[in-house]
Write a structure and sequence with these properties.
alpha/beta
């Protein structure tokens, strides 16, 4: 049977602007096509920070200049980013596969992820996004119940929470597509955060760490491998110090120790290691890789990358 893998694409694999994304996706498509050609079943998730910030800013600026329109909530902006990024990704991967003589359907699934309304993250928003505002505009945001932070010398920006993913709503659809040997792009940007209220799903004013959502997706589809792509070939401990050390293959327990010692920071590598540990722990044969997108094949062949097993 084919091994099933979830690939989490970082910022470098997508770029920031529309033209950058078009260029970046061409290289990323080659990486994904290599996996398909090597016989893996692939589900893909991705970051969306620059893209969702752009969408949020654009829609709120529009509402500001057209009072008859309301501002767009974060859940809607995330949904838009999933479609916009998925559109470029699925077409780029499809084209690369066809150039290699491989026909395989590539589908983007608009994916909602349930979060807990009592998650502590809702009390401490940490994700800053959108345009800079002046003090008057910031006060207006606060009146709406939104969190705002000041960046000295620059102005004020919106801050939203990053709760943990609890459940992927469209998981059965993703599994059905993978069972049909198709390529799936799902849970983009960490998924659209929603609160479950009986049979109703209501968008939450939040974003979800895409690496944690990738781990939840990998768990849900019973993947064999989780590949988290970032801007470094290997993760280092003691970063920037004389005793800096790149990590090769480590155990779950070693990863936990490094996390507890504070080697990975809060908003950089830590979510990647959390996702990797939660995916691998207690499951025989599972592995998680953290490396750069241009080193995936080498990592899978044991030549590079940080591997948690």
């Amino acid at each position: 049977m084919k091994k099933r893998v979830v690939v989490a694409l970082g910022h470098r694999a997508l770029g920031t602007t529309l033209p950058e994304q078009k260029v970046a996706v061409k290289s990323t498509a080659k990486c994904i096509a290599d996996l398909i050609e090597a016989g893996y079943q692939v589900a893909i998730t991705h970051s969306n920070a620059p893209q969702v910030g752009m969408i949020h800013t654009a829609l709120n600026e529009f509402a500001k200049n057209h009072p008859e329109y309301t501002a767009s909530p974060m859940s809607v902006c995330t949904a838009m980013s999933q479609g916009y990024i998925g559109y470029d990704l699925q077409n780029g991967i499809r084209e690369e596969l066809l150039n290699r003589g491989i026909y395989r359907t590539v589908s983007t699934v608009l994916t909602q992820v349930i979060v807990d309304p009592y998650d502590d993250a809702f009390y401490t928003p940490t994700k800053v996004l959108g345009r800079y505002m002046n003090a008057e505009e910031a006060n207006e945001e606060r009146k709406k119940g939104n969190f705002v932070v000041e960046e000295p010398g620059k102005g004020f920006r919106r801050a939203v929470s990053a709760p943990n993913p609890v459940k992927i709503v469209e998981l059965d659809a993703v599994k059905a597509l993978l069972d049909a040997d198709q390529i799936v792009i799902a849970a983009g940007g960490g998924g659209i955060p929603v609160l479950e209220q009986d049979n109703h799903l209501r968008g939450a004013s939040a974003v979800i760490e895409k690496d944690l959502a990738a781990g939840k997706l990998a768990e849900g589809i019973n993947a064999d491998l989780l590949i988290i792509l970032t801007n470094v070939e290997k993760v280092c401990i003691n970063l920037g110090k004389p005793n800096e050390e790149p990590l090769d293959t480590i155990t779950v327990n070693q990863a936990k120790t490094y996390m507890e010692e504070g080697h990975f920071g809060i908003y950089n590598m830590l979510p990647k290691f959390r996702a990797a540990v939660e995916f691998v722990e207690g499951h025989e044969g599972r592995k998680a890789y953290i490396t750069s997108f241009d080193k995936v094949s080498d990592a899978l062949n044991g030549k590079t990358g940080t591997v948690i097993e």
